[in-house]
Amino acid sequence: MKNFTFKINENSYSVKIVSHESNTIDLEVNGTSYSVKMKEEIKTLKTPTLVRKPSTAAAVEPVKVNPSSSKTKIIAPIPGNILSIHVNVGDKIKTNDLLLVLEAMKMENSIVSEYSGVVSAIHVKVGQQVLQGELMIELE
């Protein structure tokens, strides 16, 4: 079945696994046959288990262009496609007004304003793909 070479205390051992049935393994070590019984039956997993570490990334917040300016950037929180844009340049918006809809992983995500202001620039169009952190809309 499988061949292994082990080096223990400067001694080399050639191990060949001949067969494996339930909890018994037949093997040869340097040509000498051995039958080894395991304490428990070896369980084989048919499907690997995927364990994900919880995300430690902070939520993406709107970013001020510079602290003395009144402009605010609305950036993409996740990569996706722009499905619809609900504002135009010059529109006055209030907190929680719908700005656009972003499709990501077959889910529609409503992007709303966290600030009141006036839309000064729209950097995306319907159907465009955006990456995480990409500038979409600027507010004044």
TrEMBL record:
<dbReference type="InterPro" id="IPR000089">
    <property type="entry name" value="Biotin_lipoyl"/>
</dbReference>
<protein>
    <submittedName>
        <fullName>Biofilm PGA synthesis protein PgaD</fullName>
    </submittedName>
</protein>
<dbReference type="InterPro" id="IPR011053">
    <property type="entry name" value="Single_hybrid_motif"/>
</dbReference>
<keyword id="KW-0092">Biotin</keyword>
<dbReference type="InterPro" id="IPR001882">
    <property type="entry name" value="Biotin_BS"/>
</dbReference>
<dbReference type="Pfam" id="PF00364">
    <property type="entry name" value="Biotin_lipoyl"/>
</dbReference>
<feature type="domain" description="Lipoyl-binding">
    <location>
        <begin position="62"/>
        <end position="140"/>
    </location>
</feature>
<dbReference type="InterPro" id="IPR050709">
    <property type="entry name" value="Biotin_Carboxyl_Carrier/Decarb"/>
</dbReference>
